[in-house]
Amino acid sequence: MYRKDLIGILKDRPTALHELAMNLGLDEKDIEDDLHHLFRSLRSEPLNPVIIPASCKKCGFGFRDGKLHKPGKCPRCKGTWIKEPLISIEERR
After folding, report:
1. Which residues of the chain have pLDDT under 70?
2. Residue in 12, 22, 24, 26 with CA at minimum distance from that of residue 87
């Protein structure tokens, strides 16, 4: 899998890291490394990476931007019902 192939996959719809790794049959850590490298290389392209941050399904706490993997638990309510962050790529405006 080439990193540029990820652009086509992520332009279609926002996808969680876990789902992306399952569909490609690769390890999450490998995909995460590839995504970080891809995001750096997109600076010279007319594309922007978009990360919809994780959030707690129980209390609605929104985690900070930039993280690609799902946190273990919510710092506010200590719940473990966490919605994974979603990753996509869109055209730069």
Report:
1. 1-2
2. 12
Tell me the longest C-alpha to C-alpha distance in the chain: 41
How far apart CA 85 and CA 70 sit, in angstroms, is: 6
Q: Nearest Cα to 12, choosing from 66, 41, 50?
A: 50
Calculate the CA 58 to chain-centre distance: 21
State the first-to-last Cα distance of the chain, in angstroms, to the nearest integer: 28
Q: What is the spatial distance between Cα 92 and Cα 9, in angstroms, rounded to a whole number?
A: 17
Token representation of residue 30: 């490998």
Of 35, 32, 40, 26, the residue nearest 7 (C-alpha): 35
